[in-house]
């Protein structure tokens, strides 16, 4: 196994840092190593499974799995497990729009569900650090602990944890244990640079769409929304909202390709309400842009809040100029 020295490189955009992770993973694969493509032997979709067969005895592949079974199922703890014929608690999907991993058949209460709207999201337990475990929770697409950036490699996808450049990836352990008639491995967050690539390359089906090569300029397109996990040069405060807050910032930062792609609304290239955005009102209920738009009193009340008007610019008449 080839280990890379971890270095911090200051670049002009987030995409350059992501590229460094990609090449690091490619180099981690020894030239003599042949990856046996086991994936998910049953080929059901959607599916997220480890690309390498490793030592799964029946070549069923390793899928993300909820620990336990029946009344003892535990959604606070996830592992990698032999893929099951029926999918069941080993069936997860990659939701490209929110960069989330979601349990197909279970909600955040660990109850069986058939509704795509109720699916629970994978979340990092505790701090987002090397060695962190994972569980399931209610989906929140603004949470970095639920964000997994799918970056394509030669044989599958690296799932970068945290959205921002953390250097951490979703991975399985290097040892297998018995799990009834199946086998299992630990599932955790690992350092991308020092982990063998066979433990962190995943097959995602259906295949995630390719990232945009240019900024979105169509207000009627699904691409017209800011990337809420984007941070310019990994500076915590330099979000799309921060860039769009002042004209001089837009003039300076929106000249950069990485910012244009991540922040089309803040850069004034398009204007649309983010349909995936929701916020918690004072009564504890989740509300969205469409709810605000129904009444002028709601517009007056909620559009005074910076985080709301930046995600509901059309409703709040907060469309920005590109100049």
What order do the helices and strands come in, and which of them pair?
Blueprint: H1 14-28, E1 47-50, E2 62-67, E3 74-82, E4 92-95, E5 100-103, E6 121-124, E7 134-137, E8 148-152, E9 157-161, E10 168-172, E11 177-179, E12 182-191, E13 201-205, H2 240-244, H3 247-253, H4 257-262, E14 279-280, E15 286-287, H5 289-293, H6 296-302, H7 306-311
Antiparallel strand pairs: 1-13, 2-3, 3-12, 4-5, 6-7, 8-9, 9-13, 10-12, 11-12, 14-15
Verbal overview:
The protein is an alpha+beta fold and about 325 residues long. The chain folds into two domains: about 15-205, Trefoil (Acidic Fibroblast Growth Factor, subunit A); about 230-310, no CATH class. It has helices at about 15-30, 240-245, 245-255, 255-260, 290-295, 295-300, 305-310; strands spanning about 45-50, 60-65, 75-80, 90-95, 100-105, 120-125, 135, 150, 155-160, 170, 175-180, 180-190, 200-205, 280, 285. Strands 2, 3, 10, 11 and 12 form a five-stranded antiparallel beta sheet that branches. Strands 1-13-9-8 form a four-stranded antiparallel beta sheet, with helices on one face. It has a two-stranded antiparallel sheet with strand order 4-5. A hairpin with a 2-residue loop joins strand 11 (about 175-180) and strand 12 (about 180-190). It is globular. The termini are far apart. Mean pLDDT is about 85; it is low at about 1-40.
